[in-house]
Amino acid sequence: MRQSKLFTKTRKEAPKDEVSLNAQLLIRAGFINKEMAGVYSILPLGLRVINKIANIVREEMNVTGGVELQSTALQKQEVWEKTNRWSDAVVDNWFKTKLKNGSELALAFTHEEPMANMMKNFISSHKDLPVYVYDIRTVFRNEARAKSGIMRGREFFWKALYSFSKNEKEHNEYYEKAKIAYKNVFDRVGLGEKTFMTFASGGSFSKYSHEFQTVSEAGEDIIYIDEEKKIAVNREVYTDEVLKDLDLNKEKLVEKKAIEVGNIFSLGYKFSEPFGLKYKDEKGEDQFVFMGCYGIGISRLMGVIVELFNDSRGIVWPEAVSPFAVHLLSLGQDEEAEKIYNQLEEKGIEVLFDDRDVRAGEKFADSDLIGIPWRIVVSGKSLEKGGVEIKRRNSQESEIVAVDEIISKLR
Amino acid sequence: MRQSKLFTKTRKEAPKDEVSLNAQLLIRAGFINKEMAGVYSILPLGLRVINKIANIVREEMNVTGGVELQSTALQKQEVWEKTNRWSDAVVDNWFKTKLKNGSELALAFTHEEPMANMMKNFISSHKDLPVYVYDIRTVFRNEARAKSGIMRGREFFWKALYSFSKNEKEHNEYYEKAKIAYKNVFDRVGLGEKTFMTFASGGSFSKYSHEFQTVSEAGEDIIYIDEEKKIAVNREVYTDEVLKDLDLNKEKLVEKKAIEVGNIFSLGYKFSEPFGLKYKDEKGEDQFVFMGCYGIGISRLMGVIVELFNDSRGIVWPEAVSPFAVHLLSLGQDEEAEKIYNQLEEKGIEVLFDDRDVRAGEKFADSDLIGIPWRIVVSGKSLEKGGVEIKRRNSQESEIVAVDEIISKLR
Questions:
Q1: Distance (Å, rounded) from C-alpha A99 to C-alpha A93?
Q2: Is B102 on the interface with A (CB under 8 A)?
Q3: Would residue A217 be called left, alpha or beta, if left means φ above 0 and alpha means ψ between -120 and 50 degrees?
Q4: pLDDT at residue number A204
């Protein structure tokens, strides 16, 4: 893409009321626009990152057998009353709205109820199970304060998968697959080393739920990490009894701030019972469906990645989620740069081509702020030295590479 | 995809309160699920159609120079007050909600105001223009009645593009490009022959706006078509004066019911003035930005396509938007069918493989209801005759094709 066609501009300053580092950098670099606290438009650069994260999540969900659908934001009162979650006293972050006829509707913050309700149309026999459906969409949470940028939005993208199994055994088999898929997602987006599967409080149907927590000073949770075993315990269940149960040695655990990037949860019959979501087993007897839910915050992940990968000059994107693979800067060598741009594009390499008529210093500063992993500079000086100057965003060193060796260098 | 993994099932009956043909067929075939009147979840088959339509729209918008972003659903009161559109007396289909602190928010039904407001961050010089941004997302309209299925939803997918030009001349050049892009979209999704560019009422800045109206008995609009010129006039501007202005002969015009599938609109300074959206021209003087807007109802298009392409047995998808290219039915020949399925998938052909353990009649009926363009049946009888039975959904005739000739037959 030609940068001259990208309408966004970098900014020296983020809005004054923006206190989170992730949103400050993302706003300054032109990835998001603040509409209000906790509500951000996703600008073209940001949308490329969101789509890359979403596609990684999608691929891993598909591997587990997940099937994608798109649920709705507007939800009926009666669906949420079945589980007593309609009341604002029970769910403290509802957004509600009203139809013309006065009936209240909810803006979805999650979809266990609508999914259980819908599945009654499709599940009747043991032959219909198991089913794994997921949804990548915006949901709404009426946060009293929203000061963490895109790490805690009032409107945000997430992926939610809901599993419907015949029984706890079948559920547990999927649950283990989901753990692996989640690990793959966090590895692939570049957060693997800092992300720990964390034991957290369960529900009526399981002792624990599992959170995926990424260590970050910006985190709102406290976890206790066993770095050898690569697992952690959330403060909410950090008791001697739990440590014993998990065979963890208190002496070895390290306390860290972390941010929850995903969670998986056994729901058991909590939703299938109130909705009467049943199937006939092989003997013809009615059984309740055993459910689970599995969330990943897609826009939150973008924020966490920025919190972890940045320096004084800007963002440093991991390759898998960077908006472009290469940032190509022309310093007064538009003809040569144009040729290189076309060559790279032909090879399917995603290039942001800074073809703007601005001074070199501005191009360098913008490139560092935007944070694309490879920077290629085409200048009179580089051409004299025999090619282009290639530098990685996270390295101080650059090298001159002949034009016809660029592609092999990038690989 | 294996149909055994698709959790949706066809149904004999749509919900009793569903009066529109498009939603009846889409619900019965398992493309959508009704959450309430005017609000439908998009099931896996439907999501494939929506994604295909969205990608066609995306490609055509990109050709015009459009850049994609993702706006927000939650909107601030003060942004809408600038143009006096906040009041429910002015906009009669608002959904509103509230933050914890009591301030009211809107659920977006369109984005002229937020876009004009946001562009103040990015437009300051004539060098920043023109800009074309678009957004494919769900919007919300509080319809008093919602009886047209997915053709008039309370929550629906659309594409909206907003153009920002230096002046009317530059705007008009883009406007003509948009007309071509729109024609391409409706041609590509299969509606070209029945869709007419229709003159409708303009605003303060142009005599007319242009709607794209698809002839259908389910339409809510009345248009007068000149079939030779392939244009039409909306009843709202159907006067002798307008006909004269457009050089149309009343005698030649045919009155038809039609449904609006897209519209393009010159906005002039209607939004840039209240937001103070200005740029410095080459002389250093302040000028207001000239705006336009360009909408296409993505989920509505799915509905219109179903209204137009169906028969007594079900939907008949045009190839470009069909959820799959081929419906492969195994009638007790799973091993042979499996091989064919793998071969087609390897060639990148999208196949729905009916590997379910149900009787032949059910497979045939489901296949007709779902409406995929090509049906391939693998049965003992077809193999005896030397291959598989291939039939187009919209044809009565089938033929036997040798297994190694299937791919060339499909092309």
A1: 20
A2: no
A3: alpha
A4: 75
CA atoms of A233 and A249, how far apart (whole Å): 12
Query: Omega into A130 within 30° of 0, i.e. cis?
Result: yes
Domain boundaries for CATH 3.30.930.10 within chain B: 3-311
Residue to substitute from A10, A11, A41, interface B, most B β-carbons within 10 A:
A41
pTM over 0.95: yes
CA nearest neighbour of A305 among A195, A146, A180, A143: A195
Q: Report the chain A residue with the minimal C-alpha distance to residue B111.
A: A41
Angle among Cα A379, B67, A26 to the nearest 5 degrees reads: 70
Residues of chain B with pLDDT below 70 are: none
Tell me if A254 sits within 8 A of A224, measured CB to CB.
yes
CA angle A74, A75, A76 (to 5 degrees): 135
User: What gap in Å lies between CA A32 and CA A237, rounded to an integer?
Assistant: 36
Q: What are phi and psi of A291, to 5 degrees?
A: -110, 160
Contacts of residue B358, defined as CB under 8 A and 6 or more positions apart, other chains included, come to none
Residue numbers of chain A with a pLDDT score lower than 50: none
Chain A residue closest in CA terms to B131:
A7
Residue A411, pLDDT score: 82
Whole-number CA gyration radius for chain B = 24
Helix A21-28 to helix A298-308 angle (10° resolution) is: 90
User: Could you write out the DSSP letters of every residue in B43-73?
Assistant: -HHHHHHHHHHHHHHHHHHHHTT-EEEB--S
- Residue among A290, A282, A285, A318 nearest A302 (CA): A318
Which two structure tokens, joined as six digits, stand for B409?
Answer: 């037959």
Phi (first) and psi of residue B193, to 5 degrees: -65, -30
Classify domain B3-311 by CATH number. Answer: 3.30.930.10
Q: What is the ipTM of this complex?
A: 0.96
Please state whether the peptide bond connecting residue B15 to the residue before it is cis, i.e. omega within 30 degrees of 0.
no
Kindly compute the dihedral angle of the four CA atoms of residues A164, A170, A175, A177, in this order, to the nearest 10 degrees: -110
Q: What is the pLDDT of residues A160-206, one digit of tens each?
A: 999 999 999 999 999 999 999 999 999 999 999 999 999 999 877 78
Q: Does A411 touch chain B (CB under 8 A)?
A: no
Distance CA A323, CA A320 (A): 9
* C-alpha B341, offset from chain centre: 30
Q: What is the pLDDT of residue B47?
A: 98
Residues 134-193, chain B, touching A (beta carbon < 8 A): 138, 140, 142-144, 154-155
Angle at A203 between CA A197 and CA A206, to 5 degrees: 65
Q: What number of C-beta contacts closer than 8 Å exist between A and B?
A: 141
Interface with A, mutate which of B1, B34, B69 (most A CBs under 10 A)? B69
User: Which CATH code for domain A7-311?
Assistant: 3.30.930.10
Residue A281 phi/psi, 5° resolution? -80, -175
Q: Residue A206: what pLDDT?
A: 86
Residues A338-377 have pLDDT tens digits of 999 999 999 999 999 999 999 999 999 999 999 999 999 9
A90 interfacial to chain B (CB closer than 8 Å): no
d(CA B230, CA B249): 13
Residues of chain A with CATH 3.40.50.800: 324-410
The CA distance from B55 to B335, in Å, is 35
Q: Report the run of H or E that residue A159 belongs to, with start and end.
A: strand A155-165
Contact between B351 and B370 under an 8 Å Cβ cutoff? The reply is no
Closest-CA residue to A100 (of B76, B88, B157, B107):
B88
Contacting residues of B for A155, CB less than 8 Å apart? 72-74
Put simply, whether B65 touches A (Cβ < 8 Å) is: yes
Chain A residues with CB under 8 Å of B6 CB are 67
Tell whether domain B324-410 is in CATH 3.40.50.800.
yes
CB contact under 8 A, B67 and A5: yes
